[in-house]
Amino acid sequence: xxxxQKLALKELQSLPNIGPACAKDLFQLGFRHPSELAGxxxxxxxxxxxxxxxxxxxxxxxxxxxxAVSYANGNPAQKWWExxxxxxxxxxxx
Length: 94
Description:
This protein has helices at residues 3-12, 20-28, 42-53, 59-72, 84-90. By secondary structure, it is an all-alpha fold.
């Protein structure tokens, strides 16, 4: 693994709720720094990840993306599961 990739993964893991696996997902989606998530659409990120990986990911991945984008947008850190009800209301098919 390149040094730049290692640094990017470490930076992404500085986000609340983002561990090694989710950091790799975000890296795969093209993100290198937490600030790049500001203004992103978590549902679009989730859909892109599912297409890129060829599998439908667990809905908690969308909850986690929602928490990361919210934090990047300047909101206080929240646990990913605090976004579950909102996700269920917004995207009942997931």
